[in-house]
Amino acid sequence: MKIAILIGSIRQGRQSQKIAHYLQDRLQADDLDIDLIDLAETPLPMLEERVGKHPQLPQVVQELSNRLHSADAVIMVTPEYHGSFSGVLKNALDYFYSEFSRKVIGIVTVSAGKFGGINAATQLQQVILSLGAFALPTKLLVPEVYGAFNATHELTNEHTLRSAQKFIDDFRWFASAIQEKKQQTTVNI
């Protein structure tokens, strides 16, 4: 199974990439193929038109479209900004639709406060459903992100470690179930 992890933050001093790299390492250890998509390294122009409708689609958008199409499931990682998910992630999501169709999408949010980005996670869940995707009911919320990792970016917060394990277990189960069903449907056609 191929999993895309989409980091939806480009801000200087960002913290969300720490949990993205943690998840990448854990999922790769489970022999999954991980494509880490960092929007700071793959900057997209402001949306003028969606994939499939744009008369001269920027190459970077086409490449990201191809990467997302090839993923069996996606994990979206975002900080909470002003009670919502990041604008750069929203801009990226607005480009695509079929790339997410009928895929499991896990939500991971981080915040400096105690609530771990719950507002961003809830709003992102609504957008995921609008994309025709399946939002994983279990969300991974990383509260007080500045203290959750040590100096070498290892996750040290016990509560977040337990939450991350539950998220990974639930994500793998749900993504595998959907992938299995898709394969059955393809075979029966």
TrEMBL record:
Gene3D superfamilies: 3.40.50.360
Signal peptide: none
Superkingdom per UniProt: Bacteria
Domain NADPH-dependent FMN reductase-like span(s) in chain numbering: 1-143
InterPro entries per the UniProt record, alphabetical: Flavoprotein-like_sf, FMN_Rdtase-like_dom, NAD(P)H-dep_reductase
Pfam families: FMN_red (PF03358)
PANTHER family cross-referenced by the UniProt entry: CHROMATE REDUCTASE, NAD(P)H-DEPENDENT FMN REDUCTASE LOT6
Protein name, as recorded: NAD(P)H-dependent oxidoreductase
Organism: Chitinophaga hostae
